[in-house]
Hints:
This protein is 12% helix and 37% strand. The protein has 269 residues and is mainly β. The strands form 2 sheets. Strands 1, 2, 3, 4, 5, 6, 7, 8 and 9 form a 9-stranded antiparallel beta sheet that branches. A hairpin with a 2-residue loop joins strand 14 (192-203) and strand 15 (206-216).
Amino acid sequence: MKKAMFSFGMAALLLSCGSVKNAVTVSDLEGEWNIIELNGTAVVPAPNQPFPSIGFSTTDGRVYGNSGCNRLMGSIDLNANPGEISLGNLGSTRMMCPDMTLERNVLSALAQVKKYRKLDDGNMALCSSSKRPILVLQKKEAGAQTPAASLNGRWEIEQAGGQPVPKGMEKQPFLEFDMAQKRLHGNAGCNVINGSLELGEADGSGSALTFGQVISTMMACPDMEVESRILQAINSVKSFGVTDEGNVELYNESGTVVLLLKKSGETIE
């Protein structure tokens, strides 16, 4: 089935991005897209891995996505001429994955993008300055965004501020979300924390999430370093996402993972 899907995009690649047929404006880029072809070759993700993806918010000019391992973030010029775009100033997180080849190829291709056009099958082609299509995007299905309800329940804090949380602590840090009441409860390693949460619209940077009025008890413990990292991370959260393994990542404004959570009773390998 995948081969059949890709064949339509490959045929469409024969059309130049300079063609006036299927003329588009920046609003046609709105939303999230899977990257299904790269330099004329079908993208085949590793087993149990999603396609690399890119999303565009044409209300504020944001670009976001995942290049195969790391998360992307950047901006586009909303005043550019129709069909013209530049993605050369993208930033990304810095995680290492077992195979970085796909990510390197995606980032290299995105840096060359200067134009875009809609293909006859509804996919979008991103093209170089020579009008050569180098990426083909396929719109993600509606409703594919991360549902807020997936946060509900108790989660162990596996990482905070980019560092693992030690096992066997006297009070193992956790966060518990009550999505119906929009409340946060938990323990940062020493003190109990409580607060409120606010949700926003979903995008490829994750579904918008912020915590407000977070308060904690005031006990002093021998080692407050872990607690300090957790509280600092909580205060910086702007969005969240759910990984393919079912874990929750909480991101700061720049898209960096500041908290990694796993469902209470489960194990992250």
